[in-house]
Amino acid sequence: MISSQNMWPPARTEPYLAPEWARGLAVIPRGRLRLARLPTPTERWRPPDADPDWDIWIKRDDLTGLVTSGNKIRKLEFLLAEALEQSADTVITCGGIQSNHARATAAAARALGLDCHLVLAANSAPVADPGLGGNLLLDRLVGARIHRITWEEYPERSAHMATVARELQAAGRRPFVIPEGGSSLAGCWGYIEAIQELLAEQRAHGWDWADLAGACGSGGTAAGLAAGVRAAGWPVRVHAVIVSRDVEYFRELIRRHWLDLGLGSAVDETVDLVPGYVGAGYGVSQPQELERLVHTARRTGVILDPVYTGKAFYGMISEMRANPGRFQGRRVLFWHTGGLFALFDRQDELAPVIRRMEE
Ligand SMILES: Cc1ncc(COP(=O)(O)O)c(C=O)c1O
Fold first, then answer.
1. 309 alpha carbon to ligand 1 midpoint, in Å?
2. Taking the complete model, does pTM exceed 0.85, yes or no?
3. Within 6 Å (CB) of ligand 1, which residues are found?
4. Which of 45, 36, 68, 37 is nearest to 297 (CA)?
5. pLDDT in tens, 1-50
6. Cα distance between residue 285 and residue 279, in whole Å
7. Ligand 1 centre from 42 Cα, in Å?
8. Residue of minimum CA distance from atom 6 in ligand 1
């Protein structure tokens, strides 16, 4: 029999049944689309620079799909279900010019027969042709319409998306706006569900982690993971390595989502927001980060990205070494959240690092 799990795109939104431990949460999505390849592999990993007594594991959310790979597709399972429920015919979202979220949204939307408009920020003034580097190639291959803004304009991203939405409505379209990174309450459910996936693996195999760690860029992944472990009463700690903005911004975002879910506001009991690894700025790489990225690829075949996972992994290893007390134990699961395609826009920066290691 062909089920919706054997269909691409999925034939329809499924009614969503939350895990038992999450049924008391105040807001539960009605529907879910099966867009991600789940469960993703959960593997023991021996990255370079790890001390022998660390037991590091990796959750391969870089393998949630190909064009839709990375963490965003878990959120989009709920966000795009909401879009379809509202009979939208177009989605609008935003991010940096190399946004993985924008690319995953564009690809998933197209698969569902929806148009996609992307409000993307870059350093330079908008030009007629934004180019085809990295994620942009895929955005444009699937026919997303790009609206370029500058980083100075980015704080007003919601207003820019609202303008695009108004223009589309005036043309008779039905747009659905997805916030930056898909980090709305609905998006969080992608990572509340991911905790159910991990709990099932823990129970089936007896694996037990004391700590989870990963990149925090727009906050939804950390908010969802932390909400999941809190609601499930699982005593793991979530280390969210900040790669843009600051601790206060994310504490407030997570607190807001937790309050909406009825989880209270004691986010610090579950989440460790790790500052100090934005480095030279959001999306800007430092040589030591790229060196660890290349070193990790050469030693383990796992490809990190320069903007999120590369910095988060650098931060996790640095903290495990400098501040081991920050972690509850020595068995830590690194959540690989994807980002591969951004590398294809960084060849000039990576070339000297790769050449040096080849010598
Ligand atoms: C590859 C990758 N990893 C991690 C993140 C961070 O996730 P979040 O935005 O949910 O904090 C993002 C997006 O922001 C991303 O594209």
1. 8
2. yes
3. 70-71, 100-101, 181, 183, 215-222, 305, 308-309, 337-339
4. 45
5. 555 567 777 768 999 999 999 999 999 999 999 999 999 999 999 998 88
6. 7
7. 19
8. 217
